[in-house]
Write a structure and sequence with these properties.
It contains 3 helices and 10 strands, in the order E-E-E-H-H-E-E-H-E-E-E-E-E. Bound molecules: deoxyuridine-5'-triphosphate (DUT) and magnesium ion.
């Protein structure tokens, strides 16, 4: 069988009990993607609240170091999955949240959806490992268990405009690797 699309375990997590994503029901669109580790998604309030309050009381003025500290405390986390996805050149894997996540766990994907490009697979910086970007808007930290299903991956085709042959850059990572 020629390989068209699928998931593989990245080298770093070989032999570490990672499950490849599966669909739960016959016609489910999404392959459920699990956390590769126990992981804490800190509440955005826990560390940020008092700093934000100070910021407001200070009428929006804050020195750069303090501001960096505030932003860091509210930053989303990248949960490792231990898996990478291969697909055809005209395909993309969409990482969508599970609808139960905001309701039951306060977990949201702040980038809306994750876009996993076909050329992310086996990139030289992280081998193409998928990461789920999350924030926790509930007031207490959320403890993710290894193997907990956090997001779902949906493979789709994408279209390109006339005479577009693609960019010239080589993908060597994610999360801003192509520049500002
Ligand atoms: O939720 C996500 C979103 C992205 N990625 C990886 C795969 C994707 O191919 C790469 C780049 O994503 P995107 O193009 O959305 O982010 P960017 O900020 O534009 O980064 P880059 O400059 O690397 O393209 O990061 C993930 O692992 N999870
Ligand atoms: Mg990009």
């Amino acid at each position: 069988m020629t390989k068209k699309r699928g998931f593989e375990i990245v080298k770093k997590y070989e032999g570490k009990g990672i499950n490849l994503p599966v669909r739960q029901t016959k016609n489910a669109a999404g392959y459920d993607i699990e956390s590769a580790e126990d992981f804490v998604v800190p509440s955005i309030w826990k560390f940020g609240f008092f700093n934000v309050l100070k910021f407001i009381l200070n009428k929006g003025k804050m020195d750069n170091d303090k501001l960096a500290e505030v932003q860091k405390s509210i930053k989303p986390v990248l949960v490792p999955t231990g898996v990478k996805a291969y697909m055809q050149e005209d395909e993309v894997l969409i990482l969508a949240n599970r609808s139960s996540n905001p309701l039951k766990r306060g977990l949201a994907i702040p980038n809306g959806i994750g876009v996993i490009d076909a050329d992310y697979y086996n990139n030289e910086s992280n081998e193409g490992e998928l990461f789920v970007q999350l924030i926790n808007f509930f007031p207490i930290d959320y403890k993710v268990k290894k193997g907990e299903r956090l997001a779902q991956g949906i493979f789709i085709n994408y279209l390109t405009t006339d005479e577009d042959e693609g960019g010239l850059k080589k993908r060597n990572g994610g999360f801003g690797s192509s520049g500002i």
